[in-house]
Design a protein that fits this description.
heterodimer, A: alpha+beta, Uridine Diphospho-n-acetylenolpyruvylglucosamine Reductase, domain 3, Enolase-like, domain 1, 3 domains, 5-stranded antiparallel β-sheet, 33% helix, globular, B: alpha+beta, Aldehyde Oxidoreductase, domain 4, Aldehyde Oxidoreductase, domain 3, 20 helices
Chain lengths: 290, 792
């Protein structure tokens, strides 16, 4: 379990990182290393150049606009978890971060690294896909923005440009009244999940429920956003939620491995999606009932 | 209480070893560095079975820093096959595959290089020309005549096929009102040490000496290396003063050690091999029993269990290893803690194209306990009887000890009913039942698990002559040396490595108790194998009994000498003296202090009794108590002592998610007189955690191509602190009549019953649905799927 020999560079700017990336077809970016380093040790990943972006100041910052919260790619998961920005404006992400790995891995692992790595059971990727976050890459000196809802296309596979460097995630601020729910199931606490679900119900005084976001992860090749728009006009009772989730899950194909059957993943993802929506509803029940 | 008669024994004393481990000052193989040390990386087979046509290592050898590439053919020409203890001369095993690979991960050749990283680089350049062969993974299939033998020269896959009948099985079955049959399977799992196996060998040609430092827990280790390398026994010097980072049976390391021993001698150098986790999991000595039980049990309407027929089929993997003998140890407790009058036992061990099975905590006892306890649950279910009441009815009673079981062993002592009662009280059993029912009413699946079982202890090897009549071994000793220096300080030597058992604490506590001096002042050392007395290392839950026994006896010998010196000096008979806190007191009030007697022994030969040798030194080589005889008529006294444990736990899970949550866990534990309470409790907590792993998580699973799916901690799941509940240990003490203080073994405690208990709890939870889980581990997916199949 010794990595293949590689070069190591520690650029000071994003453009320097992009230049290094362009200089070597077999370069990889190191953004926390909680997945990549074990892969190097097992020789599953064999880069000739490792570009450590931990020392680029602008990648570790949060940003705020009137409508969005921006999280730098190198913001550590533990920092994001404690961030008041995240708690206030991206409550679904705040909930999900507690499920990411363990405290020691969250101390090193980064928000952007997790998204770029695209593990099918990654919680941050699930929240990003569910909420349609914007993923910004720097490519050839310019920013290119992707919608997280269709960014992930397979296990460890995204539509990211090969010579791009992920610089930030941007989430729409949650409305003042919004409910969220996040559930996942794993054999042991913080294992790679067998199924996970994220839900957010946005509410506006006067217009009621304005949008419902639901996503599932860990059951297929990538996190998927499910369409439950049909729920918007309903009273959001248990049977309406169950019907909408069952309908949305019909198209979902689940995978099988040593730890769980495909049928298990489908059954449990359905249940977790229902529970996530119910949790979200519960958080705004006061407003819903007015 | 017996505890009160001791000054140091059974008192809460901090283990001596903790200091260096907590401070990070242990000395492990990876901490050792020798000048110009070379490193080894083995090349693993991709195939489950293949014929090796040729190996081209030229590109690897041309790489900078690469010193040598050793092939199986080279090694087999230079060393003897590894021993296995069976009469299977055509099941030959060498450290590297010879002509043919028999499991995915088997070592094909080994690169020797200036660093481990360079060696791994070179592995990628080796070209192995191999032709894949048919392979077999399932033990039942391996038994069929139509299946190709893993070792064609051996003619079949059978390593062991022994049928035993103890007592009137047919009569008992005829007389019984009922019988039932079922099958259960124990999944292939292990103890997983934090430190993988490592060995460092160094050949010194001028001394003709092979020095070895190794992370071992292995009886007769030096002997086996010497035999395999064709070296005199006194040309192997194994250094026991290294720490071993966990084992519970799996730190065997013979193949690794023969390989690096050969390399060290060939190249005249120091060479080290430390397994990485991948090597440990797929080709180390990591895999434990994988065993299918077919059981028929005969019983009466009132719940009296009369007789049992057990067929145990073990999947040994590609070579003989220690697997077959792990079917032997359970013979010593084949009826568990129950009054079962007769037993028919059919023990089968077969080769397959899986990793070789080696010794794991309990040496096969935990799987057998799981089968017996499942039988008790099934009988209760059949009769509609309470599972607890059924056990209480069949448990051996206190007044029946020593109790002779059908297979020839006497259980030494116990009070099983008392332990059960204590646990029921501590757990508030009626409240536990009420909580189970409350959870069920709330829509959860909830169940209570119950398991009673024994820990045979004292580490004899009588299963070897029992299973292999040509083996005449009855000796299974342990030893200790003690010296009091000229300044009056005590040093004891132990002749083995320790992998967390606390042997230094054990020996200093026992000697302190015997000599009545503060254990903190006693130094424990570990000489190398050439300076050691014979022993058999910590296996079979034996060291409290055997090393503790040898240390106590060596201490008593010293005390006797001190008394003789004092009697001579004071001019009185020995029976007019008493030993008190290191001093000797005469009935007339005169006192000889410790320092004075040390002075006499070390400096005043003229004041010693006639013919007495000077100095204060002693040693003891102790045979296993009750280990007097070879088997007769397929029966033998196997272990001297039998510890008892009784598990009781409450589990619940969501019927859709299926993830078991253990609410409360109680264990009643009677291992006789406890020497160090913290060590015994630690063993028990860890054993239960290990058992939870076996029941729910841990398995070395293979895919249909014979590839090991669980090669890292990503897929080989062990319970973490989140999955192990708070455990309440309920203590009881029934001293053994066979040991110096009444102590029994505890190194396997917890693990021997926890898998059965956890399985029982989950089965209780789904009993209303008519579901039986018949294989361990019981994964959450299987739980949910089974419930869905019954309820949809």
């Amino acid at each position: 379990m010794k990595p293949v020999r590689f070069d190591y560079k520690r650029p000071a700017t994003i453009d320097e990182a992009c230049g290094l990336l362009a200089s070597d077809d077999n370069a990889r970016i190191l953004a926390g290393g909680q997945s990549l380093i074990p892969m190097l040790s097992m020789r599953l990943s064999r880069p000739s150049l490792l570009i450590d972006i931990a020392h680029i100041p602008e990648l570790t910052a949060f940003g705020e606009t009137e409508t969005h919260i921006e999280i730098g790619a190198m913001v550590r998961q533990a920092v994001a978890q404690k961030s008041e920005f995240v708690k206030t404006h991206i409550p679904l992400l705040a909930k999900a971060l507690g499920y990411v790995g363990h405290p020691p891995t969250r101390a090193r692992g980064t928000v952007g690294g997790s998204v770029a790595h695209a593990d099918p059971s990654a919680e941050i990727a699930l929240v990003a896909a569910t909420l349609g976050a914007e993923i910004t890459y720097r490519v050839d000196g310019a920013d290119e923005i992707f919608d997280a809802s269709d960014f992930f296309i397979g296990p460890m596979l995204t539509i990211a440009p090969p010579t791009g460097c992920l610089t930030r995630l941007s989430f729409v601020k949650a409305p003042a009244v919004c409910g969220t729910g996040f559930h996942e199931v794993a054999p042991r606490k913080s294992d790679y999940a067998l199924a996970s679900a994220a839900a957010q119900i946005n509410f506006a005084a006067g217009s009621g429920v304005t949008s419902i976001h639901l996503g599932i992860g860990s059951v297929g090749d990538f996190p998927e956003r499910l369409d439950v728009d049909q729920l918007c006009g309903t009273p959001l009772d248990d049977s309406a939620i169950a019907d909408a989730v069952h309908a949305a899950m019909q198209m979902v194909e689940t995978v099988e491995d040593l730890h769980a059957t495909a049928a298990y993943r489908k059954r449990v993802a359905t249940e977790l999606a229902i529970r996530a929506l119910r949790d979200a509803r519960g958080e705004i029940s006061k407003d819903l009932n007015q | 209480m017996t505890e009160q008669k001791y000054k140091f024994l059974s008192t809460p004393r901090r283990p001596v070893e903790d200091r260096r481990f907590v401070a990070g000052r242990g000395k492990f193989i990876a901490d050792l560095d020798r000048p110009n040390m070379l490193h080894v990386a083995p090349l693993a087979s991709h195939y489950a079975a293949a014929v090796i046509n040729g190996i081209d290592a030229s590109a690897a050898l041309a790489m900078p820093g690469v010193v040598d590439v050793i092939t199986g053919a080279e090694l087999a020409a230079a060393v003897q096959p590894l021993m296995n203890g069976l009469n299977t001369p055509n099941v030959r095993r060498f450290p590297l595959a010879v002509d043919r690979v028999r499991y995915a991960g088997e070592w094909v050749c080994a690169v020797v290089a200036e660093s481990r990283a360079l060696a791994e680089d070179a592995l990628e350049k080796i070209i192995v020309d191999a032709t894949p062969q048919p392979f077999i993974l399932d033990a039942e299939a391996a038994l069929l005549d139509t299946s190709a033998p893993v070792h064609p020269e051996h003619g079949s896959n059978l390593l062991l096929d022994r049928k035993f009948v103890w007592g009137p099985v047919d009569d008992d079955f005829d007389a019984a009102a009922h019988s039932l049959s079922f099958s259960v399977t124990w999944g292939r799992n292990s103890t997983v040490p934090i430190e993988t196996f490592g060995v460092l060998a160094e050949w010194n040609g001028w001394d003709q000496m092979l020095d070895i430092w190794a992370s071992i827990q292995m009886p007769k280790y030096a002997d086996q290396i010497a035999r395999s390398l064709d070296l005199p026994g006194n040309a192997i010097r194994v250094h026991y003063d290294v720490d071993v980072g966990g084992s519970y049976g799996v730190k065997r390391g013979i193949k690794h050690s023969v390989l690096v021993g050969y390399i060290a001698r060939k190249l005249g150098c120091s060479v080290r091999l430390i397994e990485d986790r991948l090597e440990n999991m797929r080709a180390g000595d990591a895999h434990g029993p994988e065993r299918k039980f077919d059981i028929t049990i005969a019983f009466d309407q009132d719940g009296t269990v009369r007789s049992m027929k057990m067929r145990a089929l073990d999947n040994a993997g590609a070579y003989a290893g220690r697997a077959p003998f792990q079917l032997g140890k359970p013979i010593s407790a084949i009826v568990g803690p129950y009054q079962i009058n007769s037993v028919a036992y059919h023990a089968l061990s077969v080769t397959t194209n899986k990793t070789v099975q080696e010794a794991v905590r309990g040496f096969g006892q935990a799987p057998t306990n799981y089968a017996i306890e499942t039988a008790m649950d099934r009988v209760a279910e059949y009769l509609g009887m309470d599972r607890l009441a059924l056990r209480q009815k069949n448990l051996i009673r206190k007044d029946q000890f020593p109790y002779l079981i059908p297979s020839g062993s006497y259980y030494d002592s116990g009070d099983y009913h008392a332990v059960v009662d204590k646990v029921l009280t501590a757990a508030d059993y009626p409240a536990m039942l009420a909580e189970r029912d409350r959870l069920r009413d709330a829509g959860m699946m909830a169940g209570i698990g119950i398991a009673a079982c024994l820990e045979p202890s004292g580490g004899n090897s009588s299963f070897e002559p029992l299973l292999n009549q040509s083996n005449q071994t009855s000796t299974w000793m342990e030893s200790c040396q003690v010296n009091i220096d000229a300044l009056g300080k005590v040093t004891a030597r132990i002749h083995t490595t320790s992998s967390g058992q606390g042997h230094e604490t054990l020996v200093s506590t026992v000697l302190g108790e015997v000599m009545q001096i503060d254990p903190e002042l006693i130094r424990i050392t570990r000489p190398n194998s050439l300076e050691s007395l014979p022993g058999n290392s910590p296996v079979g839950s034996r060291m409290a009994i055997m090393l503790g026994g040898a240390a106590a006896r060596a201490g008593e010998k010293l005390k006797a000498k001190i008394m003789a010196i004092a009697a001579h000096r004071l001019g009185v008979a020995i029976d007019e003296l008493r030993y008190e806190g290191g001093d000797v007191l005469a009935n007339d009030g005169r006192r000889l202090a410790w320092d004075e007697m040390v002075e006499l022994a070390h400096r005043q030969y003229h004041n010693l009794p006639d013919g007495m040798d000077p100095g204060l030194a002693s040693f003891d080589i102790m045979q296993v108590p009750t280990g007097d005889a070879l088997p007769v008529d397929d029966k033998v006294q196997m272990y001297p002592c039998y510890s008892f444990e009784f598990h009781l736990l409450l589990v619940s899970f969501d019927p859709i998610i299926g993830r078991p949550d253990i609410h409360s866990y109680f264990i009643g534990h009677d291992c006789g007189t406890v020497i160090n309470p913290a060590i015994v409790s630690g063993m028990t907590y860890g054993g239960i955690a290990h058992g939870i792993g076996a029941a729910l998580f841990e398995e070395f699973a293979y895919d249909t191509n014979g590839q090991l799916l669980t090669q890292s901690f990503l897929d080989y799941l062990m319970p973490s602190s989140h999955e192990v509940p708070a455990i309440q240990i309920v203590k009881h003490c029934t001293p053994s009549p066979h040991t110096v203080f009444g102590q029994k073994g505890s190194g396997e405690s917890g693990y021997l019953g926890a898998p059965a208990a956890v399985s029982g709890a989950i089965n209780d939870a789904v009993s209303g649905l008519g579901i039986h889980f018949e294989k361990l581990p019981i994964r959450m997916s299987a739980i949910s799927d089974a419930i869905a199949a019954k309820t949809s």
